[in-house]
Specification:
Distance between the termini: 48 Å
Oligomer: single chain
Shape: globular
Number of helices: 3
Helix content: 40-55%
Strand content: 15-25%
Amino acid sequence: MAMPNQALIDLIIEKFDGEIMEDNKWRVDGSKPGNHYWVEWHPFHNHYSCGCKGYAFRKTCRHIKELSESFRNNLHRI
């Protein structure tokens, strides 16, 4: 039985208790325990996208806001 790519990535992360790093892509926790979404930065279009339902309906979500705020806060520390 073939496993979809996202399910395989989630299984590897769960088993090895870590994150898989990809350029411009971050795994974020959802509001319910066990839910995870991917936030991706699209440099060509200069915007973020997320795999959550909120983004699908509104084209923005709390995952994107929290991630971009954390980048801004860390940038000010430098």
